[in-house]
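PROTEIN DESIGN WORKSHEET
SECTION A - STRUCTURE
LENGTH: 72
TOKENS:
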């Protein structure tokens, strides 16, 4: 962030990892290894609102799969 830039001026991305866990990442930075851009971008608040709407099950994907196997 530059000296004259406020956090509300900065653009962010929603990122997701292989376990379908979500995070918010500054759009001007390289997405870290193990994460990929999910497709939504906006202000930090917009991205957090998006994550809240779509991430309804916070259990990691591997745990959800293991539990589904046990139920069948």
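SECTION B - SEQUENCE
RESIDUE ASSIGNMENT:
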């Amino acid at each position: 962030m530059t000296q004259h830039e406020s956090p509300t001026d900065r653009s962010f991305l929603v990122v997701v990892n292989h376990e379908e866990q979500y995070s918010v990442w500054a759009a001007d930075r390289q997405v870290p290894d193990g994460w990929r851009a999910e497709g939504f971008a906006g202000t930090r608040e917009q991205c957090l609102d998006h994550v809240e709407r779509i991430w309804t099950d916070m259990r990691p994907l591997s745990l959800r799969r293991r539990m589904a196997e046990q139920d069948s």
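SECTION C - NOTES
The radius of gyration is 15 Å.
The longest helix spans residues 44-54.
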